[in-house]
Specification:
With 619 residues, this protein is an alpha+beta fold. The protein is elongated and about 110 Å long.
């Protein structure tokens, strides 16, 4: 409809000024005015039915008045500007909140139940009862909460705890619905199903947080409550005292807040457009406005502050033939499906070292590692070394302590009772995390808090290398939500940054949820701001951009209101008339548009040279 009005106005202007065809120009403006007035009138009527005097009412009266006195160009332009502003506003305020639906799709739907005779039957997960035995095979999704009564394996619980490293579970250990079995077949005795599981509670938390959220009333709506009646009264008073109907209509036409209704949307469009160009998706003007007020930044660790992938941080060798020892370690770890082992094999391959082909038979020592039958080759943790009386030099002990202090998991290899290799493996810190968080603090963030399901040592190690003010570790999703609620109750404006399913409740509960683009679809759908590039440079740019967008919007409102006030004053003292007033009116609209366009030129923050991850802790 807005496009149709614009085309009619252009046809009218071309016909009038270029082709000199008033018979075409005037009807085109009349049709444009009528088309534009209909939706404006309907909105005004609906508002009146709800006892609200809206800007739409003012526009309607002004358009009808201009139409009556034959000012068809003014009536058409006024309706076009108003509808175009509304269109821009609607486009920027649209939000797609389908996160609950996505979560439901990801929830387990079936389970393989084992009866007393050992028969396996696939049933709907809702038909599983407490106490039933459920079997889960390698690569399968655990459908219920419960405890393992048979089997063992590594469980990927990232969807529940955010823990990056798969956790070894054996008989008696608890498991959660939604987790994945990396390896091993297990039998679970069910303790809770459906909505009562931890995964079900995550869905419930997201639903509650989104249902309780209420959009903030926009400034223009509040302003219109007073502005519209004021202009109407001024117009009536002008007619009463002057008996000049065209003058009164001119008051209403010039009083129409064209620059006001378009000022805020165009600023939002420019700000959001700049963000999109730089890999930042901000879901509407409310998200931009709220984000600009944030003073407390809450972050998940795994996949947010870190890359979420295990890798070797350092390999220390104590012997004469490093390449040969690395080749042997690669061969040994190649027989295991442990995440640490896979990281080590990948690292050694990257060093262009091929695994030893002739490998003796290996035995698994529960909770310690692997060893050859003759005991000459040992690969595992420190307990395995001590149990076999391996000699550990002072240098090797220092290397081990260094890795422990860094929060690494350690893999040791000994040959003939002598320690040859000390390998540290960890989830790596994002290379731009330090720089990005520093920039955020300079931009106005007062407090940075880490909430993670990971262990305290690993969490503190990451926090020590970053400008993080608080660390809370070993948390389940509902505990993260409690912290977010606590911060908001203290009067803080909170933004939560996360990437996983387990982060969705916190993303929805915080004032602003920020999803990393490499995270799950659920986190992205739940978030108000999505970082497609998943970088802290982008996060810092988004925060600065939100602040400047809000400031730009406020500038546009001042320009718009100030222009209308000056126009009305000039009209009353006889300096401004319909033609000159419309010119100033349209010029003010161009000013707010060009002012908003400045937001498109804001570039990402100046980047200082990246700090090496291992140097960050010194900084």
């Amino acid at each position: 409809m807005t496009a149709a009005i614009a085309i009619l106005i252009v046809i009218s202007l071309i016909s009038d000024y270029l082709l000199k065809l008033p018979m075409v120009a005037t009807p085109a403006m009349i049709i444009a005015s009528i088309i534009g007035a209909i939706p404006v009138f309907l909105h005004a009527w609906t508002a009146l039915m709800n006892k609200v005097i809206s800007i739409e009412l003012l526009v309607t009266i002004a358009v009808v008045g201009a139409f009556v006195i034959g000012e068809y160009e003014e009536s058409a332009v006024v309706t076009f500007l108003f509808l175009f502003g509304s269109y821009l506003e609607q486009r920027t305020l649209q939000k797609t909140r389908s996160s609950v639906k996505n979560l439901t799709k990801m929830a387990p739907t079936t389970a393989e139940v084992v009866d007393e005779d050992g028969n396996i039957e696939t049933v709907d997960v809702d038909d599983v009862d407490e106490g039933d035995h459920v079997i889960v095979k390698p690569g399968g999704q655990i459908p219920v909460d419960g405890k393992i009564i048979e089997g063992k394996g590594y469980m990927n619980e990232a969807s529940i705890t955010g823990e990056s490293t798969p956790v070894e579970k054996t008989i008696g250990d608890k498991v959660f619905a939604g987790s994945l079995t990396d390896n091993g077949t297990i039998t679970i005795e069910t303790t809770s199903v459906g909505e009562d599981t931890t995964f079900g509670k995550i869905i419930e938390l997201v639903e509650e947080a989104q249902d309780s959220a209420s959009p903030a009333a926009r400034f223009i709506d509040k302003f219109a409550t007073y502005y519209t009646p004021a202009v109407l009264i001024i117009g009536i008073l002008v007619w009463i005292f002057t008996r000049d109907f065209p003058l009164a209509i001119t008051v209403l036409v010039l009083g129409c807040p064209g620059a006001l209704v378009i000022g805020a949307p165009v600023s939002n469009v420019a700000g959001i457009g700049n963000g999109a160009k730089n890999g930042i998706l901000m879901k509407g003007g409310n998200a931009v406005n709220t984000f600009s007020k944030v003073d407390t930044l809450v972050l998940d660790k795994t996949g947010t502050l870190t890359t979420g992938q295990m890798s070797v941080t350092k390999l220390s060798h104590f012997g004469n033939d490093k390449e040969s020892d690395m080749a042997l370690l690669s061969a040994v770890e190649g027989t295991s499906d442990h995440p640490l082992g896979r990281a080590i094999v990948k690292y050694i391959e990257s060093e262009n070292v091929s695994a030893t082909k002739d490998l003796p038979e290996l035995d698994t020592v529960k909770g310690q590692g692997l060893q050859s039958n003759d005991g000459d080759i040992l690969v595992g943790n420190e307990r395995l070394m001590k149990a076999n009386n391996v000699k550990i030099s002072d240098d090797a002990k220092q290397a081990m302590n260094d890795r422990v202090n860094q929060g690494d998991s350690i893999v040791l290899m000994a040959i003939n009772k002598e320690l040859k290799l000390v390998v540290g493996v960890n989830d790596q810190l994002r290379p731009d995390a330090f720089e990005g968080l520093t920039a955020l603090k300079k931009a106005g963030i007062k407090r940075v808090v880490m909430l993670t399901g990971d262990n305290k040592v690993a969490a503190q190690h990451v926090a020590d290398r970053l400008p993080v003010d608080e660390v809370h570790a070993e948390l389940l999703p509902e505990q993260k939500v409690d912290f977010v609620k606590k911060f908001t109750e203290q009067g803080h404006h909170v933004a939560f940054v996360g990437d996983g399913i387990n982060d969705s409740p916190s993303l929805a509960t915080a004032d602003i949820g920020i999803g990393m683009g490499t995270g799950t679809d659920v986190a992205i759908e739940t978030a108000d701001v999505v970082l497609v590039k998943s970088s802290f440079d982008a996060l810092a740019h988004a925060y600065v951009l939100a602040k400047k967008t809000v400031a730009n919007t406020q500038e546009n409102i001042i320009i718009a209101v100030g222009t209308v006030a000056l126009l009305l004053l000039g009209l009353l003292v006889g300096v401004i008339h319909m033609a000159s007033g419309m010119f100033v009116h349209e010029f003010s609209i161009l000013i707010v548009i060009f002012n908003a366009m400045r937001l498109l030129r804001i570039k990402t923050l100046n980047k200082s040279p990246k700090l090496d991850v291992n140097q960050v802790e010194t900084a």
